[in-house]
Amino acid sequence: MSLNNNNGESPANFEIDRRKEALGDLSVLPDEILCCFILTNLTPRDVARLSCVSSILYILCNEEPLWMSLCLKIVNRQLEYKGSWKNTALHQLDLPCANNEVSKKALCFSGFNSLFLYRRLYRCYTTLSGFSFDKGNVDRRENLSLKDFSRDYDGQKPVLINGLADNWPARKLWTSEQLLLKYSDTKFRMSQRTSKKVIMKFKDYMSYVQIQHDEDPLYIFDDKFGEAAPDLLKDYSVPHLFQEDYFDVLDINQRPAYRWLIIGPERSGASWHVDPALTSAWNTLLCGRKRWALYPPGRVPLGVTVHVNEEDGDVNIESPTSLQWWLDFYPLLADDDKPIECTQLPGETIYVPSGWWHCVLNLETTIAVTQNFVNSKNFEYVCLDMAPGYRHKGVCRAGLLALDEGFEDIEKNIQSMENNPSYFDITRKEKRVRICQSIEDTDYENGTNGMSTSQGLDNLEYSYDIDFLAMFLDKERDHYSSLWSSGNCIGEREMRDWLWKLWVGRPELRDLIWKGACLALNAGKWCERMREICAFHGFPSPLHDETLPVGTGSNPVYLVAENVIKVFAEGGLEASLYCLGTELEFHNLLHTLDSPLKNYIPTVVASGILLYEKGSYRVLPWDGSSIPVGIDSSNFISMMHKEVEYPFGVWGKKQFEYEKAGRPSYESEISGKSSLIWPYIVTKRCRGKIYAELRDTLSSEDTLNLASFLGEQLRNLHLLPVPHPSHDILRRMVQENKIQLSYGNGFSDNSAEKIDNLAEWKLFVSILNRKRKDVTHRLKEWGDPIPTKLIKKVDEYIPNDLTIFAEIFENEAEVCKPCTWIHSDVMDDNIYMAPCCSSPSSAGNTSDPSVAEGTCEKRSISGQKRSWSPSHILDFSDLSIADPILDLIPIYLDIFRGEPVLLKHFLDSYKLPFVRKESLKQSVKDNRFGRFSYRAMCYCILHDDNILGAIFSLWKELRIAESWEEVEEKVWGDLNNYSDLC
């Protein structure tokens, strides 16, 4: 297809401008807008139809880069390149490809030219044989010692090192030809600029490489190559300069992505970016040549836009392709504004320090391996980047240009943060930091930015220094009560687990770990609060090794001497009060009824409220049976709180759950941000270890005993009577619209009559229906590994009105109570195991929680077998009233990891019916509701936590499931076979 007229005349000689007639009102838009922002957001079918409208739309709608973008958005299976991206897209849609397009005569149109299309076409076909930058200004070193590297480069500036890979088998084995021989059918992950994961067989990818003419070609960028091709891991080793990696305390399946196989053709590469979590990286080239450009931290390259989300601090970067940047932006730079550059040759390793911007362009087909790491030089930066908030993240990457106000204002704000918890401006949702000007006086040696040219900040120095950057943390935006950035390389639980494992496993690093924990967890403030609680109750002062919170939960927990101190912070003050109030009400009920469950729950030593007033702390004891002093004037206190024995007990908590259901998550985070009041509880410390630490070492007999133990204790829990509010309070709740069953989506308040006046079901179903309204949106936000095709079918699977679940129990209230106390969080870190000793011939559970570990270890020397028995269930702060089936979800998925044998042992010990079969037959018209598996699956989908992520991670084969019924049968199908359930 030609853009010239039939006579070969240049565009300047055209007499007729075809654009207006062919595009109509769209002619006012530049071609870039039409191609990059309009056509790319259409479906392939719509683009194909639009191409028939006019000659110019035919040209625009048949452009290869457009079809590449369209194709990558619809990829739903392994990719096979079919000679053009249009044909490849049609193949993905199972549509017939165009017939013999190559033999067709090229279409020519006069009266139209496009500089945008010409430039894009040029970039697609240009060659880079003479593009090497031989006069690089990155230091080149050989035989570099660890001492010299640490002194001169680590955490400071890039360096090219030769000789680190000389003894690797990969130096000889990693060529296109040899890899093709051995890994022809191996599937690798591709890089792409869409949310879709693109996978190709290596032989298909190499075929694509040979014939493609893309501006930004796909290239292999696979962090799972060690799983796809384990032998590749034997072909290289981490160079001695980079072996210190603090992430290595995590299991391979826990640590964030850190190593990648990189294979790409000419013109491919990585556009401008800063490595995740401000980690450092090394990259060793085995084949081909790469051109590198680098800028120090805070100096954003020309043409790059940094987006900072002010809700969770997530940072997104918009950048041209690496080839486009070098062709279109690089020539515009003055000599003083040009980046540090070099051309990497085979056998060379480049080191990229924390926070450095870098861009890579493959000058020919290249093969490389790279790893990111955390060491003593960048540990604090990594912790800082994990911390909640937005300001510090923007400053780390964009320097002072990320700030809206002058430095004097910033200093005042920073100084007032400790006394002004509402400093965070909730009215601003997103910041854009667009960098289009140069920054002068860059100190390449120290990796710092000199002077910013941003208005109002002319005379201020930006330093990539941890103390300087930490000033921009929002100190009151605490780790435990704030939104976690979706862009963080690990989640909150993983972060806490990582720091704790470092704390325990690397005691020589505790000073450094403490500094990082203060940045990421606000550990110093929480330790100060914990000390106040200890002092008030006369507990021993915490030792140095007791100052870091333990566990992975969303509230800080401390092990101090014989006690466990838990400070409630998650969800803000009101949520925290309900968590503690419910737990205290529950403990009182246990002891009043003398339930056997009380022997397996840690004893409560103390509880109360910690307040921060006028620069000092004050502690007030509280047993949950009244409204705490200091809270009684709060705006969330109602008349109902004053009329019940436990104002923040489980019934009030259910109302709070209803009010919170459907509310945007950031609203609850903001509401808790200004709290200077923290409820707390102190319990007796258990001896032994949590199940999460022992999981892989337990015998099958111990694991079966655990399943039976959980069944027995959950039975004791679910048999406890549920407190009810008075009829007057219930009537007032309905009158004040605290409970509603009508949301304008097809069901009415009349359905409430079918719940047989069971107050707990009224609330439970109301909460489910609120969650039902935005279920598709939530699943889309969670994304991978939940299959997209199932997300589209979720509305068909879940009924519009969840009241149908209540109808199952109609007229059965006295026979089988449908709603019970539920723990709702029985996971592997909430089960304590005590050591016990038994001879090989002994059978059954021989646990004795009083046996000390040391005694057991001594006995094991004399030939006895060491084993572990469950002793306690922990953390009842998530207590609620709901369908008991909900307690099966964390137990089966997290503790049992989907093992049916363990679930059967649990149910055999549980021995309680969930519902009688007669009620199912009589009440349910749709046979789906007669399946326990269906109810369990619906609860998984509607759960507040990403339960589906766990399901599709445990059963990877379900990622290609065609229906929710298929997932339901695989995960929960066995529930329907257990007669004891009915």
UniProtKB/TrEMBL annotation:
> Looking at the record's lineage, which domain of life comes first?
Eukaryota
- Supply the PROSITE patterns for this chain: JMJC
The cofactors named for this UniProt entry are: Fe(2+)
Keyword annotations: Iron, Metal-binding, Nucleus, Oxidoreductase
Q: Which GO terms describe its molecular function?
A: metal ion binding; oxidoreductase activity
Q: Can you supply one Gene Ontology CC term for this chain's record?
A: nucleus
Subcellular locations according to the entry = Nucleus
In this chain the JmjC domain maps to: 227-390
- Pfam families found in the cross-reference section: Cupin_8, F-box-like
Q: Does the keyword Iron apply?
A: yes
PANTHER family this protein is in?
ARGININE DEMETHYLASE AND LYSYL-HYDROXYLASE JMJD, TRANSCRIPTION FACTOR JUMONJI, JMJC DOMAIN-CONTAINING PROTEIN
Please give the family membership noted in the entry: Belongs to the JARID1 histone demethylase family.
In Swiss-Prot or TrEMBL terms, this protein is called JmjC domain-containing protein
Please give the organism.
Penstemon smallii
Lineage of the source organism? Answer: Eukaryota, Viridiplantae, Streptophyta, Embryophyta, Tracheophyta
